[in-house]
Specification:
This protein has twelve helices and seven strands. Helix 1 crosses helix 6. The radius of gyration is 20 Å and the shape is globular.
Length: about 290
């Protein structure tokens, strides 16, 4: 049997990806020309600062503490996001999604079509269009950073995501760049990450929500800070090992520059997750080696 070459496989995958997006465009437009399933099915959680967004294009918005005290799923289902969902169902374009509107106004498929067409989002189409706009959604695609503790100070990053960098600029002041993007005066108020040693109500709410979130979770990625230094990373690993989810795609972003003891601990857990009796469907290791 002749195996397809790599470029042929890539072409087939691209064709299927495009086809899924085109089919989903027709389904979405049948309900509303501004509907995007990612608003329900995807979330990026920045727990040190209490911010979130659904996909990567809209700006981050605050998770109100008063909302998660009543309903921990408000980590994702904020009142702000529910208003954006309502607009989408009614055919109004949320301003925060301007990236996709610009693509579509130029006659192109946008990430609204591509994201909504992916299996983890598309499976919820009927449920989303049938339920009330203000109903709580349980996302299938979740990214989270639990804290900003990190041992490196990479210049393409930010003091907001590195405790080492934050300590340095607080001690030495901002780097002398034309735009003082790392000035400590910027990281105050809502922009100030909650230090890892302080109580974080957003992390507390996450772990209360986790048993509800986990059973239907298909993609889960942990970033940081540095996840290999974070006890929450290993808490997730242990939970997955104790409660196998064979459909789970698990991912971690790391600088891979931690001490040997942590590296050995991490590697042992990953081996269990990928080669144990009930492995996760896919494990992806993202490594930050820029510069």
């Amino acid at each position: 049997m002749i195996q397809p070459k790599g470029d042929e496989v890539a072409t087939d995958f691209k064709s299927k990806f495009l086809s899924d997006a085109e089919k989903m465009k027709a389904k979405l437009d049948g309900v509303s020309p501004s509907l995007c399933l990612a608003k329900w099915q995807q979330v990026s959680l920045h727990l040190p600062t209490g911010l979130n967004n659904s996909c990567y294009h809209p700006p981050l918005h605050r998770i109100p503490l008063e909302e998660i005290k009543i309903n921990v799923s408000a980590l994702h289902n904020t009142s702000h996001k529910k208003e954006q969902r309502k607009m989408m169902l009614e055919g109004t374009r949320p301003v925060e999604c301007s990236y996709c509107w610009a693509m579509e106004d130029n006659g192109k498929l946008s990430d609204r079509h591509y994201r909504s067409g992916e299996p983890w989002a598309a499976k919820a189409f009927d449920e989303i269009v049938a339920q009330a706009w203000d109903a709580d959604a349980t996302p299938a695609y979740v990214e989270v950073n639990f804290n900003h503790a990190c041992n490196l100070r990479c210049s393409y990053c930010s003091p907001q995501f590195s405790s080492s960098w934050m300590e340095e600029v607080e001690r030495e002041g901002a780097y002398p760049t034309s735009t003082p993007h790392n000035d400590p005066s910027y990281f105050t108020g809502n922009r100030r990450p909650i230090p890892v040693r302080e109580h974080n109500p957003y992390v507390e709410a996450f772990w209360e929500w986790w048993p509800t979130l986990y059973p239907t979770l298909e993609h889960f990625r942990m970033t940081g800070g540095e996840p290999l230094m974070d006890k929450n990373t290993y808490r997730v690993f242990d939970y997955v090992l104790e409660n196998p989810n064979p459909k789970l795609h698990l991912g971690v972003t790391s600088n891979f520059s931690v001490d040997e003891k942590l590296w050995v601990k991490y590697l042992a857990k990953v081996k269990q997750l990928t080669t144990g009796p009930t492995p996760v469907e896919h494990f992806m290791q993202y490594v930050s080696l820029d510069g």
